[in-house]
Amino acid sequence: MRDRDKKLRRGGRLGAIERDVLEQLTAGDLLMGFLMSARSTKLMYKIARERAVRRYKTRLAIDRLVREGYVQRRDDILSITNTGRVLIERTVKNIRATLDTLQWDGKWRIITFDIPERLRQARDEIRTILKRAGFIKLQNSTWIFPHECEELSRLLRNDPRLSRHVLYGVLEKIQDDARLRHAFRLKSK
């Protein structure tokens, strides 16, 4: 009973493992609901397959990063190596250089993220990386750039904790983009 009282005093905050357990239980409840509905069996299999594919791809990406020396694994803990930091830094410099060397193709690249508070440090690191690469903050957690930067986006999403929280997109047009063109010193296409 004391643990429960402590939890209530903490405001019901949960640790990462506790949240994962609750997520798994919730997924089990969904599965049971699907099984109870004959029409939803197909959808249940589709969702289960998508989750399995996502886990498989994440595991392959982690294995590749470990094998290439960009990430190190100690038990269940992953951390970026100096080689991984150098790769990100080199990519940031290359993207920054495109501002002066490439002619604008009229398309905007956007990286947006919605990273939970428990990953605050990773969120702050992403902001720092995007600033150094020359991105401009469009709105909270939405950053814009005028040239191709999918490689940087891929590197950011390679962190298994962040892969589902970071999105990359290409836009043909943004309303009232004169301010952005001026900030990036771009000529109209």
Provide a quick synopsis of the model.
The chain has 189 residues and is α+β, with helices and mostly antiparallel strands. It has seven helices and six strands. It folds into two domains: 2-67; 81-183, Alpha-Beta Plaits (2-Layer Sandwich).
Structure characteristics:
alpha+beta; Alpha-Beta Plaits; four-stranded antiparallel β-sheet; two-stranded antiparallel ribbon
Describe the structure.
This protein has helices at 2-9, 16-36, 41-67, 82-101, 120-133, 150-157, 178-183, and strands spanning 71-74, 77-80, 108-113, 136-139, 142-145, 166-171. The protein is of the alpha+beta class and 189 residues long. The strands form two sheets. It has a four-stranded antiparallel sheet with strand order 4-5-3-6, with helices on one face. The model has no long low-confidence stretch (mean pLDDT 78).
Write the SSE topology:
Elements: H1 2-9, H2 16-36, H3 41-67, E1 71-74, E2 77-80, H4 82-101, E3 108-113, H5 120-133, E4 136-139, E5 142-145, H6 150-157, E6 166-171, H7 178-183
Antiparallel strand pairs: 1-2, 3-5, 3-6, 4-5
Oligomer: single chain
First-residue to last-residue Cα separation: 67 Å
The number of helices is 7
In the CATH scheme, what's the topology name of the largest domain?
Answer: Alpha-Beta Plaits
Nearest-angstrom radius of gyration? 21 Å
How much helical structure, as a percent, in the residues? Answer: 55-70%
Low confidence ranges? none
Mean of all residue-level pLDDT scores: 78
Please describe the biggest sheet, giving its number of strands, its sense, and whether it closes into a barrel.
4 strands, antiparallel
Structural class: alpha+beta
The total domain count is 2
The portion of residues forming beta strands comes to: 5-15%
- The main sheet orders its strands as 4-5-3-6
